[in-house]
Amino acid sequence: MNNRVTIEDVAKAAGVSRQTVSRVLNHKSDVSDETRHRILQIIDQLGYRPSRIARGLATDRTGTFGLVFPDVANPYFAEIVRGAEDVARERDNSVFLCNTDENPQRELTALRSLDAQQVDGILLCSPRLNDDELRSLIPRLPPLVLVNHLLRFNRRPVANDRLSGSGQQLSPASTEQATGQKGVMVSAVLVDDGAGSAAAVKHLWARGHRHIGLLAGPSISHSSQRRIQGYSEQLVALADHVDSALIRYCQATAAGGQQAAAVLLTDHPEITALVTYNDLVAAGALRACRTLNRRVPEDVAIVGCDDIYMASLVTPELTTLRVSGRALGQEAMRLLLSDLAAGNGTDRSREIWMRPTLVVRESAP
């Protein structure tokens, strides 16, 4: 027997129409305060819970969103999830999480599954699909915001916003100068990874390091390419050249960092500093240095990225590039909700850039 309380039960108990109860549930203003209070009391007494399916039929919205990300084991992505859910819950929305394990095919499957579930929108975090695949998919998907990936079409954005690590907005011209490009149809929240890598190299160079290696992360990561660009441009500015042999791709894990650092430091013992893809890779590099009897920071200085909780717990504590994953998730969800509110057919595509902040600790003082 189904004892689920319905909207009709609430309306009957309150002595109002079903439409009046619906207006209260949808926060409409054309209901008196007295009637609203009475209906909310009865809803609480009866334990009524609105059906998302029924609400979706009435509003063409399901109150659900998808968040696709590449690695559930990485604490940084957990912070992005947390930030996105913070904002979603404020609007009484739910978030479906899809982990892809760095696999483009799983990413494609997740996007198709979320579309079939009729989510209101999708946050696609650090996509591993190539740009051509994304461009062909996006017109067939629900509204989508990219997290830490820039996908260009042949149209100019309505606005470019840029956030520093502290959240300070800079001018649109600053964004265009940083990207060197114009024209976008997909809103995105991005980390200025190139500026982060450049800041790390500049810091290490100022402390006397002249052979600086880069553990760049997965080869299919667009963030990796921006890091390589920032690293290379800064070295060219400081030394007029960059040695590409000191750049190695690796898995974005501690094991991946350990393996890549061990090989790179063995092949190039002249290296005295490493810039790494993230703090997990940096932790792996610390382990590799111990195995090779290379002291940190005396023999090899190491800089991580993200400033996850464990960065200050390892020994030595990690110097790292701080980027708030939680703020990234919050901004992305706000942007998606804003795009939805603008309505279909409205090109309000925007970019929000977040700048990493160097946090100096023991591994690269």
What does this structure look like?
Strand 5 and strand 6 form a beta hairpin. Helix content is 44%, strand content 16%. The chain is α/β, with parallel strands linked by helices and 365 residues long.
Question: Helices, strands, pairings?
Answer:
Blueprint: H1 7-14, H2 18-25, H3 33-46, H4 52-59, E1 64-69, H5 75-90, E2 94-99, H6 104-116, E3 121-125, H7 131-137, E4 144-147, E5 159-163, E6 169-170, H8 172-179, E7 188-191, H9 193-206, E8 212-215, H10 222-239, E9 247-248, H11 254-267, E10 273-276, H12 279-291, E11 301-306, E12 319-322, H13 325-342, E13 350-354, E14 357-359
Helix pairs in contact: 1-2, 1-3, 5-13, 9-10, 11-12
The order of strands across the largest sheet is 2-1-3-4-7-13-5-6
Shape: elongated
> What share of residues is helical?
40-55%
The percentage of residues in β strands lies in 15-25%
**Strand tally, please?**
14
Could you spell the SSE succession in H and E letters? HHHHEHEHEHEEEHEHEHEHEHEEHEE
* pLDDT averaged over residues: 85
The low-confidence runs, each spanning 5 or more residues with pLDDT under 50, are 155-184
Main sheet: strands, sense, barrel: 8 strands, mixed
N-end to C-end Cα span: 68 Å
Q: How much is the radius of gyration in Å?
A: 24 Å
Per DSSP, the total helix count is 13
Alpha-beta classification: alpha/beta
